[in-house]
Amino acid sequence: LLDRPLLARYLEDCFFTLPGLPPDGARLRGQLEAVHWARGFKPRELPGMHNDLVDPAEMMRRAFHLWGQTRWPGRNGRVRYAHTLFNLYLLRQLALLVMRAWDAGPGDAGARLAQTQEVLDSLWKLGPADQPPLVRDARWLIPVAQSPGTDQLLPYFEVAEEIAASFATEDHVAIQDAVVRLAGGHLRSYLHYYVTQKGMDLDDAELVLTTRKSDALDFSLLIHGLVPLLEAYERAVQDGDGERRLALADAICQGVSPDPELFIERADLLGAYTMVEHLFAAADGDGRMSYTPLGRRHVRLLDEYEARIARLARPLHEDCRRFEPTEGAYSPYGVLFGHASGLIEHMAFKTLQPDADTRFGLEDAFTAGDAGKLAWVSGWRKLPHVDPEVAKLYEYPQRFAEALFARIERALRRRAEGAADGARRTGRLFIVPDDASQAGPQAAAAPDLPVRYVVSSDERVVTAGKAVACEPAQLASDRQEGIFVVSYETSGGWVGVTKDFLTEVLGAGQDAKIVGLPEAAAQSLRLMCRGLVGSADA
What we know:
- With 538 residues, this protein is α/β, with parallel strands linked by helices.
- The longest helix has 29 residues.
- It starts with a helix and ends with a strand.
């Protein structure tokens, strides 16, 4: 009863060994998952953690464990949960299927999305009344399908491009609305983990550095999602469409909530933090480093984001006050989860209890609500076999939600009043050749970038006091995750310059210089840190 692969095979047999199933249907078994993984979305193995799309076999195994710890239900209880497992299986297949919407070309994507929506609508209309509508909007299945952690970053940017090219404006904005709300919630949950389980303050400098440098993918995808939302929001403001204006403002505020200072007040630093060097820069035909097509698109979106957030800070500040968390009610700033599939698992697992609230679905977790919705979210982990201390860690965090909102309101107010524009100087990084005599007076006067921001797996570089030692595997992983503003290979390993200096040096208004970078690395650094690199002649 606890053998997940065996349970998975039995469950799939229920669908793929049905009498009368055409041969073409039987051959589809496993194909959607295989092609999704081959694209680069195969979940990373995380010891001790379930990192996958919602898996009905895993949910069956968990139910057997719970029943073993408590008591086995009667037939009605088992049948209710069997319906839940059926819904989870179809939901998983639809999430995988919607990722194929543009396979036949962008012209067919909208129609295929509509077909997926029809199946989803039928699932909730025809099912029993005691089943929650886990996901109502098929457009939310696109970010859900991408939510488990993986080892590759490129597929996420490719999909973001395909979404922009494949769907009409309404669908495109709705998909990005889901992307932004889910990404913002995931990053807020990450902050909550550090605050509650690591004992760090929300504004702790170490926490700021940790999240900024480790969230390159999420921050980058937030830019890709926020730009179309800001465009639609500006249109709603101009058209006087108050309802749509507030809905979009809600999503935008949730998107910037993990780091309002960076997204609203420090857009000059935000660009460098969202860069992923190995995806956004490469040598051109002449051997010079230049932006890749992905890099050019990202730069264009950064420019548009910076211009729009500057124009719209005032109306966003006016609207954001409508989203302030209040005692006894629910705010999405308090939702806690690992990834989107985990939220669906919580809702599904709760159906094991006969008194489970079945009014709400995934989308409802990202809109404010009354005490009823608060009780729904607070009850996800209140199960008879869950250790009370564990459940306490995930109680709805009212004070945390209030603190997050206060940071958003403060950043928007400062930007709207112009206080953020001239209050802080951003330093400059000067790239100086080995022969420092060629540097201008300002570059020469700048202190060297402290060694603590440079790591290397090359023993000679470390021995020379030019870098801090870093294991080759760790350096390679950090490079893949976008931890560095620039990295380059030496004869004895790799060197990487971490993004920490963006906040601690340049963000603090201090200049610095870095001496003796290889020419290709210097060119790449200028691309990754647009507007932050000063002229060596200065």
